[in-house]
Each structure stands twice: as C-alpha cells, then as structure tokens.
Write a structure and sequence with these properties.
D-Maltodextrin-Binding Protein, domain 2, 2 domains, 5-stranded mixed beta sheet, 10 helices, 24% strand
Length: 275
C-alpha cells in the first residue's frame, strides 16, 4: 500500500522537473546571429547602390546570399570610396564588398577574394560629335573619372604613354568622388568623356536612354574584382570563400553575375593577378 504514494510523488517530481526545463528553455535567449559589418560605396550601379534607401545591386545580392548560408546577418555601411580600405584596416568594417578591382598595391594592404571580371567603357553625351573607341582616341580630350580608383591611375597612364610620349596632346583629367557625379559632369558639358567600369556604363545608358551612349569598342584594362578582407582575419575569409564556392556549386552564382552582364574570372585571370 505504500507503493502508490511513492509512485505518485515520483510522477509529480518528474513532471515538475520537465516543466522547469521547458520554462528554462523559454526564458533562455536564443543564440545571437553573427553580424558582419560590410563597407560599400553605394553609388556604383549595378554593383551597389541605394534604391529607395535600400542597398541594391549584384554585390548586395551575393553578400546577402553568402550570409544566409551561414545564418549570419549583414550590416551594410555606406561610405565613400576613399574610406573603404582605411575603415577595414581600422576594424570599422569586417568586409569590403564594393566592386573593388584587385591590384598588387591593394593586395599589399588587404586580402581579396576574386569573383568577377570586367573592363572599361567610354561614355559620351548622346549628341556628342566625338566617338572615342580606344585609348588612342582620348588624346586631347577632357576625361572624367572617379577619384582614388584604378580608373584615375589608368587615364594618367594613357595620357603619358599613349599620348604625350608619342607627341600627341595629353588628356585633361577631372576626378570626382562618385560615378554619378562624373555622369552629371558629362551631361553638364564639364567633361567630354566618362571613363568607367563597363557594367556601370551599361547601367547609365539604361537609366538615361539617348542622353548618353557608349562608343568604345577596343580593350582597355581587363581586370578582376574582389571582396576585401582584413589581413589575418582567416575566419571571415573562410566564411566568404566557402560561401562563394557553395553558390558556384549550385549554379546560382553564375546566373546572378550573368543577370547583371558580368562574368567569372578564369583560372588564368586569377593566376595573373600576382604577376
């Protein structure tokens, strides 16, 4: 007869214990998501730009997809180009996702993961009488480009090596903080040609219609773009590199690049980065 009270007590104790475990599980906060602070100059469609105040573009889509694979959260931080590398090195950003070209000079400061290949296009006004097709056609013209970029170095190189050294008039170069500012200068007749990324110039034509046109047909400086990571941050590098591999394996990465008129770099393109 003493067994029944014991069983009832044991059952009550077990139920009480389960309720306490359930209560603890409910009150215990869920594990916080890893937040990745991503620096980007969001003035560069179709790569990264703000649409109705929301980050948009191919770089935004790729980074968000990588973060989703890992269960991480992206904190997009819009800044101007000149602040990107200093901000990464100063730990303001964890990642730079801003259609940044991979150069030897940049690789000395940060690590980079290659993910797309592009070239230069020349944009002129729709009513322009000039139609520069290649570097040699820029001699004597006023050319606008973005300050602090590979473009700025390239136009100076063209001016000296293609023009001045061959007895032709050099380029008059005007630099601006953002690509849209260069386009506005073009429309305002402050420059004759905009020298910029091919995909960006295609985006400008789609946006502005017959106000502008692309005239270039020759190859300029085919170049590979990459994601910037602080040197020594192997965890973030691995997260991004593995994420891109997974997107490629699913075919999603190639479709995304193609939808923006971009392509992947080849193995040879990547091998040539350090030569």
């Amino acid at each position: 007869m003493l067994l029944l009270p014991f069983l009832l007590t044991a059952c009550n104790d077990e139920q009480s214990s389960k309720e306490k475990v359930a209560e603890t599980a409910q009150t215990q906060p869920a594990a916080e998501k890893k937040v990745i602070n991503v620096g980007s100059d969001m003035t560069f469609p179709p790569y990264e730009y703000l649409e109705d105040g929301k980050p948009s573009g191919v770089d935004i889509e790729i980074m968000n997809k990588i973060a989703a694979l890992d269960g991480s959260e992206v904190n997009w931080m819009d800044t101007r180009w000149a602040n990107l590398i200093p901000g990464l090195k100063g730990k303001k950003f964890d990642v730079l996702f801003s259609s940044m070209y991979i150069t030897k000079e940049r690789l000395e400061q940060i690590d980079m993961i290659p993910y797309y290949k592009t070239d230069i296009s020349l944009l002129v006004r729709g009513d322009a009488t000039i139609a520069p097709k290649g570097p040699g056609d820029l001699c004597g013209l006023t050319v606008g480009t973005m300050k602090g970029t590979a473009f700025a170095n390239q136009v100076q190189k063209i001016s000296k090596e293609v023009c001045v050294d061959k007895g032709k008039p050099g380029l008059t170069v005007r630099e601006f903080e953002t690509s849209p500012q260069v386009t506005q200068a073009l429309l305002a007749h402050a420059v004759e040609v905009q020298y910029d990324d091919a995909a960006v110039m295609m985006s400008a034509v789609k946006r502005l219609g017959d106000k502008v046109k692309i005239t270039s047909t020759e190859e300029f400086f085919p170049i590979v773009g990459g994601i910037g990571i602080r040197k020594g941050d192997t965890a973030t590098y691995t997260l991004l590199n593995d994420g891109i591999k997974k997107l490629k394996a699913s075919g999603e990465f190639q479709k995304l690049l193609s939808s923006y008129g971009l392509k992947e770099p080849t193995e040879d393109d990547i091998a040539n980065l350090t030569k």
